[in-house]
Amino acid sequence: MEHPIAILDSGVGGLTVAKEVMRQLPLERIIYFGDTLRAPYGPRPSEEVRLFTKQIVSYLLQYDPKMIVIACNTATAAALDEIKAMTDVPVVGVIQPGVRAAIKRSMKGAIGVIGTEGTIKSRSYEQALKRIAPHLQVYSKACPEFVTLVEQGLYRSSKCKPVVERALHEFKQLDIDTLILGCTHYPFLADAISAFLGPEVELISSAEETAREVSTLLYHRGQLASTLEMPVHQFFCSGDPVLFQKIAREWLGDEIQVNPVVWQIPRFA
Amino acid sequence: MEHPIAILDSGVGGLTVAKEVMRQLPLERIIYFGDTLRAPYGPRPSEEVRLFTKQIVSYLLQYDPKMIVIACNTATAAALDEIKAMTDVPVVGVIQPGVRAAIKRSMKGAIGVIGTEGTIKSRSYEQALKRIAPHLQVYSKACPEFVTLVEQGLYRSSKCKPVVERALHEFKQLDIDTLILGCTHYPFLADAISAFLGPEVELISSAEETAREVSTLLYHRGQLASTLEMPVHQFFCSGDPVLFQKIAREWLGDEIQVNPVVWQIPRFA
């Protein structure tokens, strides 16, 4: 059997990455872990986020993955380097792919970034963008309320519009042409964000871009799936599986085979 | 001094890749070689293309590059594996990046590919697309006349429109949403191609996507430029430097520092 790609997140946000991996790499098998019991990670001290991320990676390593995707910006900002040091399996975070995509797309060189408090406070995006292209102008803002909407399954409700508008009104004044959705929960709200900011601001989804980079790295490492069989994915969460399953099915859709879904709650926490 | 990124092409087509590397990785230094004396490569037997590509890579290796970019689809299709076997320096071709970008962007799963005779005959794009996503529908066509227009510096002339329309009329009948410009010369004609096919067909530029993947690989290998100094690039061609220089300056623009440009004609051919 193919070695899987392990994807982890604080909760359901990483499903946006899983969905894109399924679409862009339909032959790859996924093991997903959402730490719904302890979500959101955004407001937690980075020390704690690092500990939780290491626990989950230890759990996922037993599935012998060929790649680990930290599909959570907060965890990437807090723990990427430590996770890389922990294992020989290649580890991909969600910050760098969004950074490279934003640089590719922004013609004005003026880029907005939204994320959780943890991500924005870490200044990871700003540093990564300027590390590659020092001339860029970067405007950052934490939007923690978006995560709550998504984790509660309210991302298609009428509650989104006023929350999005209140959070993003400052960006209407700025001359940006690119906005990085620096949290894997935010693609759930992409339609509402785009409706408010208008077509001249292109949204960069960490999810799409990370899947693209997973594809790039698997190819260059000679590790693309070698069978033509459709893979069977596995999903785990640490909290209530009912809401997680509802959101996972809504988001991943029926066109993608995710059966049999095995639910299991590991005993740390 | 930073090790450079070596970029090679049959002629001026690879300048589209160089331009994107300069934009997306402004701190990286480039050594460019255009084999204008022997362009176009498209109609040549693949054996010959392989030989020429190896000659140029041997020449470029003396500059101790940290990465080699075969910025020519025909040469990538014919010689990528042999060039990889020739050196420990990582080698990036232009086919795989376009493939991954097309898969990311195509929602219908119906993708067009245009390239030189050599590229289309090799079926490299079709095979690479289906290797990752077997369900895709792929429509390919050779458009060798585009390369001639570009190498002659006529890409902004009124001659382009009828040539583009004649070459691409079949794609108007097909329900594609994505067209891969499978030749690095074609981005010079992107406006004319887009005007004819309309906004519902998204063009994938090998150039943009390859630069993005160069950025990805340099990051994951820990090889991004470490100084903040603006680099001094070097350009070489095997044929007439006057026309090459005219096109290079027109395409790369004044906003990018490419001085001092050193012109030199190596003595093979």
UniProtKB/TrEMBL annotation, chains A, B:
Function of this protein?
A: Provides the (R)-glutamate required for cell wall biosynthesis.
Which domain of life does the UniProt lineage start with?
Answer: Bacteria
Provide the reaction this enzyme catalyses. Answer: L-glutamate = D-glutamate
InterPro entries recorded? Asp/Glu/hydantoin_racemase, Asp/Glu_race, Asp/Glu_racemase_AS_1, Asp/Glu_racemase_AS_2, Glu_race
- Binding annotation for substrate: D9, S10, Y41, G42, N73, T74, T184, H185
Could you tell me which pathway this protein works in? Answer: Cell wall biogenesis; peptidoglycan biosynthesis
Keyword list (alphabetical) reads:
Cell shape, Cell wall biogenesis/degradation, Isomerase, Peptidoglycan synthesis
Family (UniProt): Belongs to the aspartate/glutamate racemases family.
Matching Gene3D superfamilies: 3.40.50.1860
- The catalytic residues are C72 (proton donor/acceptor), C183 (proton donor/acceptor)
Q: Which GO terms describe its biological process?
A: cell wall organization; peptidoglycan biosynthetic process; regulation of cell shape
Q: What is its EC number?
A: 5.1.1.3
How is this protein named in the record? Glutamate racemase
A GO MF label: glutamate racemase activity
